[in-house]
Amino acid sequence: FAYYQQLFSEYVAVASPSEIRSIGSSVVDHSIHFLSTRPGSIVVAACASYGTPKDRKRIIKSLKGYTRSSLLHRDAYIAILRIVDVTDDTVSVHKSVLAEILVTPDDKDDDEDDVEEISPLLDLALSDTASKLFLMLLVSDEETRHKYFDPFELKVLFENPTIKENGEDVPTSKKNPGTRRRELLQYCRAPLVELCTLHADKLLRSRSGARILREVWKSFPSDEIATAVLEACVGESGKDSKTLSIFEDPVGHLVLKNMILDESVESETKESGPSFVSAFHGKFKGNLIQIASSNRGAFVLTALSKNSAV
């Protein structure tokens, strides 16, 4: 079967959009069976790119119940990203795709003895593959997308696929990509904010999670997120000698530095609202020398010194 998927992906690579649409309608009902390999996932992504709205609904129906596992799969995730990216019916995407990941999976229901509240998005945010779904929705500018997505992903997730109709290139999606992104992001807003407030420490120590935290703050800044991040900065310090403080963590200190620099860059155009820089300075103004005593902490304070509000 893997050999068949490889041949199919090679055909898709050279076929015209019209040819992909034509053959795609005969395989979209079996999309879930293609996601075990990268070539198969590329085929499903191509069918989503050039398929009709009906074809896309059939793909979504085939993948129903497998959203979480597919996002965590090393190859299948790219097909999920593509179908979410190009489908105009965002209500259907929410009900059939996003709804599966916005609730705690059955096999992870809270244990009676476990009192800690856990976001259903945590395992996805810490995953290199699954986190790309949230980054795709949170990030709108091309420069940042190129930092977060590798060349293979950018090639599959190209914007505005078109197909020839009566000699003219016609977009296969009617809605503006930004409009679709904003509509889907509204469904994820509250769960993403909750993720960042509940698990700031875990996100700060993860490369994938750190990206999510930074972009959620940029999109939905709130006092709750700022407080959670700052509490994480002091929460582990001194508790366990094996655990580095966030200021000395290889990933964590970079997140703090970049969140501060982001606000410095946006200070001239940003409307009044929660300020991470002000919250940070208010929390640690009496401990700046201690923070600067570590090499990585010094980078954070250097970024802080560039903000005119301090």
Describe the structure.
With 310 residues, this protein is mainly α. It has helices at 2-14, 17-24, 38-50, 53-63, 67-71, 77-86, 90-101, 122-125, 131-138, 142-148, 151-156, 177-198, 200-204, 207-219, 223-235, 252-266, 276-284, 288-292, 295-305; strands at 162-165, 168-171. The chain has a two-stranded antiparallel ribbon. A hairpin with a 2-residue loop joins strand 1 (162-165) and strand 2. The longest helix is centred in the middle third of the chain and has 22 residues, at 177-198. The relative contact order is 0.08. The model has no long low-confidence stretch (mean pLDDT 91).
Summarize the structure in short.
The radius of gyration is 22 Å and the shape is elongated. 61% of the residues lie in helices and 3% in strands.
Order of helices and strands: HHHHHHHHHHHEEHHHHHHHH
- Reading side by side through the largest sheet, how are the strands ordered? 1-2
Estimate what percentage of residues fall within beta strands: under 5%
Low-confidence stretches: none
Radius of gyration: 22 Å
Output mean pLDDT: 91
Query: Considering DSSP H and I runs of 4 or more, what fraction of the residues is helical?
Result: 55-70%
**Overall geometric form:** elongated
Number of helices: 19
Assembly context of the chains: single chain
Backbone structural class? mainly alpha
Distance between the termini: 61 Å
Main sheet summary: 2 strands, antiparallel
Number of strands: 2
